Amino acid sequence: KGRVVDSSTEDDLGPTGQTTFTTGAAVNGEISGTVTVTIPVTSAQQAAMAGKQVVVYEDLYAADGSTQIYQHENPSDASQTIYVPAIGTTATDQADGDKFIDTTTDSVVKDTVSYTGLQPGKQYTLTGTLYDKATGKSTAQTGTTTFTPAKSSGSVVVSITVPKGTQVGKALVA
User: Fold this and answer.
1) What is the mean pLDDT of the chain?
2) Three-state DSSP state, 45
3) Closest residue by Cα to residue 148 from 118, 128, 110, 114
4) What predicted TM-score, i.e. pTM, was given to this entire model?
5) CA dihedral 2, 84, 74, 150 (to 10 degrees)
6) Residue 26 and residue 6: Cα distance in Å, rounded?
């Protein structure tokens, strides 16, 4: 059986899974192998895990289902750790930090993305896209940045260029 817990608090987060298997013949007195335990996660459970590092704990039971043979519970086991990211953004005019861009010239929207739950040392690529708030449609103006976080939480800026005259009178969201 497997279950998902918060790696920092060891609180049980709800998702569980199990599998049944039969071992093969012993070789030199030892039985070994690998079994995959699938743990379904609902969208509500995933939302509750956002921004956390979670780890999978496993329990191995005998065929009777009640005799525990082995237990693996290590909250700092890197091979069992899953990073569940969460992000939030704040878009401003790069020129002066307000919420209005000058449409008479090329402008840049500075989209500051705050993140939690990223794996330190792993490279990520973040793409920001501007949308017309009224229609919900993409303006096709995007910006991309690639970064490698030193910590699991932080922020990074994505710059999105808005060409002169293209978004006159529109409310935009990133």
Assistant:
1) 89
2) helix
3) 118
4) 0.73
5) 160
6) 36
What does the block give as tokens for 30? 């030892």
The single-letter code of the amino acid at 24 is G
Q: Give the 3-state secondary structure of residue 155.
A: strand
Identify the pLDDT of residue 144: 97
Residue 19 backbone phi and psi in degrees, to 5: -145, 155
Q: Max Cα separation, the chain?
A: 79
Q: For a pLDDT cut of 70, what percent of the chain falls above it?
A: 95
* Rounded Cα–Cα distance for residues 165 and 151 (Å): 40
Confidence of residue 22 (pLDDT cuts 50, 70, 90): low
Spatial CB neighbours of 78, under 8 Å, sequence gap ≥ 6:
none
User: ∠ CA 37-77-8 to the nearest 5 degrees?
Assistant: 100
Report how far residue 79's alpha carbon sits from residue 67's, in angstroms, rounded to the nearest whole number. 26
- What is the rounded (10 degree) CA torsion for 85, 86, 91, 94? -40
pLDDT at 15: 81
**For residues 59-85, b (16+ Cβ closer than 10 Å) or e, as one string?**
eeeeeeeeeeeeeeeebeeeebebbbe
Contact predicate 120/107, CB 8 Å? no
